[in-house]
Amino acid sequence: MRQYELEIHVENDVYLALHYARLLMNELGFSEMEKQKVLVAVSELTRNVLDHADGRGSFLCEIIGGHGLRLVVRDWGTGIERLPEILHGEPSHNRRGLGLGLAGAKRMMDEFHISTSKEGTEIVGIIWKGKAPQSRRG
Q1: Which residue has the higher pLDDT, 1 or 8?
Q2: Half-sphere exposure of 25 (CA within 13 A, CB side)
Q3: CATH: 3.30.360.10, 3.40.50.970, 3.30.565.10, 3.40.50.11260. Which one for 3-128?
Q4: What is the pLDDT of residues 19-44, one digit of tens each?
Q5: Mind listing the pLDDT tens digit for each residue in 46-90?
Q6: Residue 6 contacts residue 16 (beta carbons within 8 Å)
């Protein structure tokens, strides 16, 4: 299984995460639309580590099943308060990303799971080549 992993501490780590995701998407032959969705999600999720966990986190990007890409972003912050509201699009007050936040990243993925506690947060997103993400409303 091909993968890249890095610690997220500073802004340049976000760019490196985007680069790693792009390498794997090119290897899988993702369409330009699929690539843009993944890059938006990677940007939002890794910037959240900088904004909300003081740069204490990690990023993993790996090929799964021969035609899917799994993103795993972990942080050692204090957890996500108001998670249901945030996932339904209520804005965060400390944002440097593209303005889409967790709700936007979730919409970009075919599968999206969040585990959060006072010890930190883990977000797993999966996108399958050639499969349009289903609506995440409701």
Answers
A1: 8
A2: 23
A3: 3.30.565.10
A4: 999 999 999 999 999 999 999 999 99
A5: 999 999 999 999 999 999 999 999 999 999 999 988 888 888 766
A6: yes
Q: What is the pLDDT of residues 90-113, one digit of tens each?
A: 655 555 544 458 998 999 999 999
Backbone angles phi, psi at 67, to 5 degrees: -150, 20
**Which residue in 66, 79, 62 sits closest to 125, CA to CA?**
62
- Output the pLDDT for position 132: 56
Q: Using DSSP, state whether 127 is helix, strand or coil.
A: strand
The structure tokens listed for 5 are 């992993």
CA–CA separation, 119 vs 17, rounded Å?
A: 23
DSSP string, 18-67: HHHHHHHHHHHT--HHHHHHHHHHHHHHHHHHHHHSTT-EEEEEEEETTT
Distance CA 112, CA 99 (A): 19
CA pair distance 39, 21, nearest whole angstrom? 7
